[in-house]
Amino acid sequence: MENNFLKPPKSWEDPATHYVHAINSEWYRLITKLQSEFAYSTVNFYSKKNMIFMFLPITTGSISSPIGFGSDSKPIKVNILGQDTYLVDSMQFYLEYSCRLHSKGCYYIAPSFRGEESDQNHLNEFFHSEAEILGDLNDVINFVDEYITSLCNHFLETSYEDIVKFCVTTDHIKKFLGLKSIPRCKFEDALKVLDNNPLYIKNHDNKYRTITKEGEKQLMNHFGGFVWLTHFDYLSVPFYQKASDSSMRTALCADLLMGVGETVGSGERDSSGTETLKALQYHNVSPENYNWYVNMKDQVPAQTSGFGMGIERFLLWLIKHNDIRDIPLLPRLGKKMYF
């Protein structure tokens, strides 16, 4: 029997008329309900942990994806009242700063901006759920596991009927909740799982290696749909991910692969300014715009770790959909002008 599931209107393909179709769309009516439930559940989860919601600017001079070896997107420069600045690609630096004020941890939900091509998995402007806590990589991985468990329970309790309109079933959510723990796999072990197949692994001028989208799919299939991929090559991640040891070969970072692939990125931070300066130099990033960040760590040393979840990517998994461009009610895709 054919599944009767809700299909997206794809109205974003025509910027001039998108708003006409979207305003009468059952798809967007339900998507925006799920977005609201996500925000409610997130605030409720953090409130129980006495964490602080931060009101933070969406401009910064200290971009978190600087042009280093492992950058995967370009910053978006804007001029405001004659001052050159950037739209934030992450609030991580601000959250690290905020953790020096609030030891229970800090979080936010707000837009982030990336200068990359929009496609099925990427948006130029997306919503980020990010948090920073005192602790190490293991602490933040456990924290994210708890957060997603809380989200899943909330959606089953409040949005079951809406979800089945999209994808008929909630078995994938129950499968996640049935896990004793999410599998973890170090990058080097992942290469063995993938048989070092060049279709799945990309070597960047012998400086570092990354796993392709096809490789991520293979790993998710291997581990039953969910896996924490950890300890990437150090030069493949931004400078603020702490090195695993003095050899600076791997980083204390982890991506949660689920749904369309990377849905959460997390990492442990350097705790001192000296360590951070060394990391900037190793990644060939000028320290000019990060002096405040280095000084902060010298003034108030603290071991923090944090994560960022792409909300649209989580919602894709929730409704078992495969095109992130169908999620925003008010899309921002490349140079197209909407509204």
Q: How would you describe what is shown here?
A:
With 339 residues, this protein is an alpha+beta fold. It has a single domain, classed as Bira Bifunctional Protein, Domain 2 (BirA Bifunctional Protein, domain 2, 2-Layer Sandwich). The chain is 35% helix and 20% strand. It is built from eleven helices and 13 strands. An eight-stranded mixed beta sheet has the order 1-5-6-13-12-11-10-7. The chain has a three-stranded antiparallel beta sheet with strand order 2-4-3, with no helix packed on it. A two-stranded antiparallel sheet has the order 8-9. A hairpin with a 2-residue loop joins strand 11 and strand 12 (261-268). Helix 2 crosses helix 4 (137-158) and helix 4 (137-158) crosses helix 6 (171-177).
Summarize the helix and strand pattern as letters.
HHEEEEHEEHHHEHEEHEEEHHEH
Report the count of strand segments. 13
- Measured by DSSP, the beta-strand proportion falls in 15-25%
Strand order of the largest sheet: 1-5-6-13-12-11-10-7
Oligomer: single chain
Short structural summary:
The protein is an alpha+beta fold and 339 residues long.
Describe the secondary structure blueprint for this structure.
Layout: H1 18-22, H2 26-48, E1 52-53, E2 59-60, E3 76-80, E4 83-87, H3 92-99, E5 106-113, E6 125-134, H4 137-158, H5 160-167, H6 171-177, E7 184-186, H7 187-193, E8 201-204, E9 208-211, H8 213-222, E10 227-230, E11 253-258, E12 261-268, H9 273-282, H10 291-299, E13 304-310, H11 311-318
Parallel strand pairs: 1-5, 7-10
Antiparallel strand pairs: 2-4, 3-4, 5-6, 6-13, 8-9, 10-11, 11-12, 12-13
Helix pairs in contact: 2-4, 4-6, 9-10
